[in-house]
């Protein structure tokens, strides 16, 4: 990669849009919903200037299906939304997973369930990591914690989507989307926008059979075979799992937190470290695949765990599944609708550290 | 008669695959498929055509037409086609949808794709009933028509009136061409093909959205013989869904 010298001061939402353009995203299909509106607003002019296309769809349903069409045609494309809108996109995401269509989808998580609020929350973790639509599927899911990381992971999301023929989700929240930070933009090199698309619909040439992108498999055993193939693909992603470890080496207590909450927890950890208290942070960067092996290695060192999430206990299940044979995790929920601060996290961390 | 004396007068289009279809006897999907295939051949666009299949009996369109294709979720074919065409504007893109798919669950997608003037073509096969799921009421089911979910016949005060899609689509600003044909007779099939050709040409000329409704029979779910189904089409459907061109911007001055 070639680092560009300039630094820019942008919101997380804009960083994602800029990251997509750097990754040579050619089509963006959007629909307004708070707190992600900066993404389609930015794209409505920037992607046109970059020679691509933008459509404000009539609904989240339509936007996700436009994405399906562009992905089936082998073109780098993206959509973005927030929680209620993401529920509507699930139909198309299930079809994309079943048809193995690459695409990038951004969810700036807001409070739920239902209409909820427009503030930050992490209540969409299950939907994001389990496959929020019908059928047995997963999609690759990133949980960026800073604006720079949002930019970087958006670029990686396109590579993974096309390398593995899968929808890739970027799960942020209202904090990340609306927060401004300086970032250093960079441009990936050697993006082959047409290479490796030997499955995509482009127009049948005389020297090959027609191509068909579909998720319907009616013949006896055919669907079972497709599911087996998909599951093997998801299993192989285990090697791509990634986490940030901060002050974990000598820590007695490990805080497990991701995204914006991981960042807030990091501030709390820094404060405890100044006081000589042995607290560390484990922040998953890939939420699916979950960095289970890395976490289990910490558990095998005898460390204790406290999972903190902006929901009522969702990633907690992945933490427990990862360490279940050697340890357990306590849990501190931040209720959706509340805006967490590092100070709020101190008491539960201290209680856990002192075994209360 | 020996083989040498036979003269082949009716061949399979090159872009139609040589295999038996799964459609019921008397179903008109086969004719509609053939018309699509003939036009792809005549216009020489097989190498640039991308088909968007919908849900219902016609989902298997891609098994019979020899072009690249993608399968769309229920009703969403116009949105999928929008994504395909926007990402590959030099290709010819068409959807092929039934009445349940297009006029019920997909009403929003068809209306907005037409209104945006997407440079795609939509072939809309209207047989007034859900075929694949077993004969339930469609938005186009006629008043009094018995289906598995209107066992006493569709009632306007309970289920509403049958929706006339071509008239609606013709009223939208982005529509370049909208017409309704019928597949009940040779005369009407020929007319229907002319409508389809015009819709295809509008896309090839980058003019706007093309929509052709094809009235078709479903003898199985109508519980009729193929001939009775054709008679119903002529006597009941055409009077409610009048045939003809409803919008043609080449005569009106074009769309913006």
UniProtKB/TrEMBL annotation, chain A:
Domain Pyruvate:ferredoxin oxidoreductase core: 251-344
Gene: vorB
Oxidoreductase in keyword set: yes
Organism: Pseudodesulfovibrio cashew
One Pfam family, short name: POR_N
InterPro entries per UniProt: 2-oxoacid_oxidoreductase, PFOR_II, Pyrv_Fd/Flavodoxin_OxRdtase_N, THDP-binding, Transketo_C/PFOR_II
The Pyruvate flavodoxin/ferredoxin oxidoreductase pyrimidine binding domain, residue ranges: 19-196
UniProtKB keywords: Oxidoreductase
CDD domains in UniProt: TPP_PYR_PFOR_IOR-alpha_like
Molecular function terms, GO-annotated: oxidoreductase activity
Protein name: 3-methyl-2-oxobutanoate dehydrogenase subunit VorB
Domain of life the protein comes from: Bacteria
Matching SUPFAM superfamilies: Thiamin diphosphate-binding fold (THDP-binding) (SSF52518), TK C-terminal domain-like (SSF52922)
Automatic annotation (TrEMBL), chain B:
Domain spans labelled Thiamine pyrophosphate enzyme TPP-binding: 58-200
Pfam families: TPP_enzyme_C (PF02775)
Entry's Gene Ontology BP terms: cellular respiration; small molecule metabolic process
InterPro entries reported for this sequence: 2-oxoacid:Fd_oxidoreductase (IPR051457), THDP-binding (IPR029061), TPP_enzyme_TPP-bd (IPR011766)
GO molecular function (one): oxidoreductase activity, acting on the aldehyde or oxo group of donors, iron-sulfur protein as acceptor
KW Iron (keyword) present: no
Protein name: 2-oxoglutarate oxidoreductase
């Amino acid at each position: 990669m070639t680092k560009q010298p300039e630094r820019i001061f942008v919101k997380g939402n804009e960083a994602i849009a800029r990251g997509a353009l750097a990754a040579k995203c050619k089509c963006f299909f959007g629909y307004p919903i708070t707190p992600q509106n900066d993404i389609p607003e930015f794209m409505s002019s920037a992607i046109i200037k970059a020679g691509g296309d933008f459509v404000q769809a009539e609904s989240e349903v339509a936007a996700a299906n436009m994405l399906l069409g562009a992905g089936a045609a082998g073109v780098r494309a993206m959509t973005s939304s927030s929680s209620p809108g993401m529920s509507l996109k699930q139909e198309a995401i299930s079809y994309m997973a079943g048809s193995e269509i690459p695409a990038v989808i951004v969810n700036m998580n807001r409070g739920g369930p239902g209409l909820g609020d427009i503030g930050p929350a992490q209540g969409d973790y299950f939907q994001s990591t389990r496959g929020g639509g019908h059928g047995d599927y997963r999609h690759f899911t990133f949980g960026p914690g800073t604006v720079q990381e949002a930019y970087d992971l958006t670029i990686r999301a396109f590579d993974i989507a096309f390398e593995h023929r899968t929808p890739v989700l970027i799960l942020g929240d209202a904090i990340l989307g609306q927060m401004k930070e300086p970032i250093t933009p960079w441009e990936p090199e050697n993006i082959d926008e047409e290479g490796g698309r030997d499955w995509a619909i482009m127009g049948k040439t005389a020297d090959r059979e027609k191509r068909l992108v579909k998720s319907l498999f009616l013949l006896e055993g055919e669907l079972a075979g497709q599911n087996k193939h998909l599951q093997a693909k998801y299993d192989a992603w285990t090697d791509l799992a990634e986490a940030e470890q901060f002050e974990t080496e000598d820590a007695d207590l490990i805080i497990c937190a991701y995204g914006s909450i991981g960042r807030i927890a990091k501030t709390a950890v820094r404060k405890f470290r100044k006081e000589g208290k042995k607290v560390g942070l484990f922040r998953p960067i890939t939420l699916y695949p979950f960095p289970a092996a890395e976490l289990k290695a910490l558990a095998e060192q005898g460390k204790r765990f406290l999972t903190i999430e902006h929901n009522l206990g969702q990633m907690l299940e992945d933490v427990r599944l990862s360490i279940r044979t050697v340890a357990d995790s306590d849990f501190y929920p931040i209720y959706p609708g509340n805006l967490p601060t590092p100070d709020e996290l101190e008491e539960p961390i201290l209680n856990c550290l002192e075994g209360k | 008669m020996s083989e040498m004396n036979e003269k082949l007068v009716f061949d399979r289009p090159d872009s139609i695959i040589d295999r038996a279809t799964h459609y019921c006897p008397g179903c008109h999907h086969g004719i509609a498929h053939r018309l699509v295939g003939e036009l792809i051949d005549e216009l020489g666009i097989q190498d640039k055509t991308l088909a968007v299949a919908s849900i219902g009996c016609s989902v298997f369109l891609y098994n019979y037409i020899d072009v690249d294709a993608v399968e769309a979720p229920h009703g969403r074919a116009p949105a999928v086609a929008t994504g395909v065409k926007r990402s590959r504007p030099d290709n010819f893109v068409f959807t092929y949808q039934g009445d349940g798919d297009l006029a019920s669950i997909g009403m929003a997608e068809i209306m907005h794709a037409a209104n945006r003037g997407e440079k795609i073509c939509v072939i809309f096969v209207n047989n007034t009933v859900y075929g694949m799921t077993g004969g339930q009421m469609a938005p186009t089911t006629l008043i009094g028509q018995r289906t598995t979910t209107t066992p006493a016949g569709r009632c306007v005060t309970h289920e509403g009136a049958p929706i006339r899609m071509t008239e609606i689509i013709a009223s939208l600003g982005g529509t370049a061409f909208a017409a309704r044909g019928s597949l009940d007779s040779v005369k009407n099939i020929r007319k229907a093909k002319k409508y389809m050709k015009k819709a295809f040409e509008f896309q090839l000329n980058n003019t706007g959205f093309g929509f052709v409704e094809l009235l078709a029979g479903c003898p199985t779910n109508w519980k009729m013989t193929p001939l009775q189904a054709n008679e119903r089409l002529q006597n009941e459907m055409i009077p409610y869904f009048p045939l003809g061109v409803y919008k043609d911007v080449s005569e009106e001055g074009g769309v913006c």
